[in-house]
Design a protein that fits this description.
The chain is globular and about 50 Å long. The chain has a seven-stranded parallel beta sheet with strand order 4-3-2-1-5-6-7. Helix 2 packs parallel to helix 3. 48% of the residues lie in helices and 12% in strands. It is of the alpha/beta class. The longest helix is centred in the first third of the chain and has 27 residues. Cytokinin-activating enzyme working in the direct activation pathway. Phosphoribohydrolase that converts inactive cytokinin nucleotides to the biologically active free-base forms. Belongs to the LOG family.
């Protein structure tokens, strides 16, 4: 059976010439002119809104964040703001799958905005981090290693909100993967109220002491607001020298799997 799709296009009418009957009253002519002008303005607004709509090169962004909300309300506000920023740019969310803490806030904001949410969570953590109603798609995995691999595989970029050991581990691993050449995706820190200042100082110290190359320092992007950070991620271009190419890592992975 052949189906037919009907496409409807809206476009502004910039002008037309019509012969008016002499019997047409001035009042009627004015009404028609007003209606034509109103339609033209409405179509102009429609086009302007489409032109100014924010577009992103990212389909999905992975967000690392705490299963706690933190003591400051600014952390919670930042999680919601980030979720709203992703929605405004038509970006879907990949995250750790929890419904509590900052994880719950950012995922709820993205879900409420109509974007798709993918939560990746180890089965062992589900009773602890999943409470009440879950949002989006929940993918259960065997362990923490598989969780990080799945989150990275489905994402085009990474953002870390404030968090604890788990957030730092996830963040530093994707930074290391970028340095090694496993991926070339941008990594961002949402540095709310200077939360990550100490970490950035540590990294700068490591550069100063020769443990991190100056070019590799550029892997990490930071900004105090979600809007500014996503903009920087959009503009990111890798400038560090990878330890090995992405292709080499892929070949190595395939070879390792075939030996199992």
């Amino acid at each position: 059976m052949i189906s037919t799709n009907l496409l409807i296009f809206r476009f502004p009418i910039h002008g037309f010439v019509t012969k008016y009957n002499q019997s047409l009253t001035l009042h009627t002519m004015l009404n028609q002119a007003h209606e034509s002008r109103s339609k033209s303005l409405a179509n102009t607004d429609y086009n302007v809104n489409n032109e100014t709509m924010q577009k992103s090169k990212f389909g999905r962004i992975c967000v690392f964040c705490g299963s706690s909300q933190g003591k400051k309300s600014s952390y919670q506000d930042a999680a919601v703001d980030l979720g709203n920023e992703l929605v405004s740019r038509n970006i879907d969310l990949v995250y750790g799958g929890g419904s509590i803490g900052l994880m719950g806030l950012v995922s709820q904001a993205v879900h409420d905005g109509g974007r798709h949410v993918i939560g990746v969570i180890p089965k062992t953590l589900m009773p602890r981090e999943l409470t009440g109603e879950t949002v989006g798609e929940v993918r259960a995995v065997a362990d923490m290693h598989q969780r990080k691999a799945e989150m990275a595989r489905h994402s085009d970029a990474f953002i870390a909100l404030p968090g604890g050991y788990g957030t730092l581990e996830e963040l530093l691993e994707v930074i290391t993967w970028a340095q090694l050449g496993i991926h070339d995706k941008p990594v961002g820190l949402l540095n709310v109220d200077g939360y990550y200042n100490s970490l950035l100082s540590f990294i700068d110290k490591a550069v100063e002491e020769g443990f991190i190359s100056p070019n590799a320092r550029q892997i990490i992007i930071s900004a105090p607001t979600a809007k500014e950070l996503v903009k920087k991620l959009e503009e990111y271009s890798p400038c560090h020298e990878s330890v090995a190419s992405k292709l080499c890592w892929e070949i190595e992975r395939i070879g390792y799997s075939s030996e199992d």
